[in-house]
Amino acid sequence: MNTLRYSLMAWFVAGVLTVSAQDNTGAAQFPDLTPDVRGVGMGNTGVASSANAFSVWRNAAKSVFSDKKAEIGYSFTPWMRELTKGNDLHSVGGYYNINDKQGITAGFRWFKHAEIDLLGDDATFTPKDWSVEIGYARKLVKGLSLGATARFVRSDLSGVEKDAVANAVAFDLGVYYRHTLAGSEKSVWALGLQAANFGTKIDYGYGKYDQPAKVSIGGMIDHVFSDKHRLQGTLDAGYRVLPNTCWEWAVGAEYAACDKVFVRGGYHWGEENNRMQRYGTVGCGVNLWHVRADFAYLLPETNSFLKNTWQVAVAFDLDWNLR
Questions:
Q1: How is the chain split into domains, by residue range?
Q2: Which of 93, 139, 170, 267 stands 20 to 30 A from 34 (CA)?
Q3: Nearest CA among 261, 220, 257, 297 for reference residue 43
Q4: pLDDT (tens digit per residue) in 41-54
Q5: Which H or E run contains 141?
């Protein structure tokens, strides 16, 4: 069991699990990484932005306001390559709107870890972490929806100790309100609220660790200037409840040309004890026929572990097949 403890300590120091650079960070921190590449390009915002295939992780409630029947997407994130190579987050997400009032969302994340040397032993092991989530969204009244998500998380360190496998569950709750802007039928504003990843503790058999959990509120204005030009602005504020408490906020913008080409930018800020969460972002995207590709790149502070971090995603809307 001491081998497990020492190996986990080295693991945390290496930053494989730690995503917020705080003391007393819990295990299985990968649920804190978002697969929503479009939102990452906009300062890592998304509580109130328009829906996409990765809404199950931002705010499941907004998926029922999508102008599409269904979407499915895949995203890839090489994580903390400044520290070590081989840590990758693979994610698949999507939604299906049953009718105008209700829909379901789903997602799967697989965190592929690099091999880790066991301290004092001529051996290595590869941790295995994954989660699966499913959500339900429903419009309560015109312009207002509610979404709930259930998540199962599994973290496997059995390469160190035979029984070092932890399972946990967590839940998200989201609220979304959307309304047209005065004087414009196509332009809208929206407000969103999400309580994310509140659930049981991770327990490998020698101690319990909190899953990362936070409460976020966001706003969005989506203004259509003409059929060829649109600008969306977002603002999020969040309070991390577990494993440690801290505030963060983010602002972002997206310009769309002919709904085909997208340019994005933003900034994300964290408190002094959460400095790794301070970074600028840039992003871009292209939408051709029923296929959408997005790219985001982080611009962190000097000497940050997040240097050279990028994400890419591809999504398909299924309207051509379902309508």
A1: 2-322
A2: 139
A3: 297
A4: 999 999 999 999 99
A5: strand 128-141
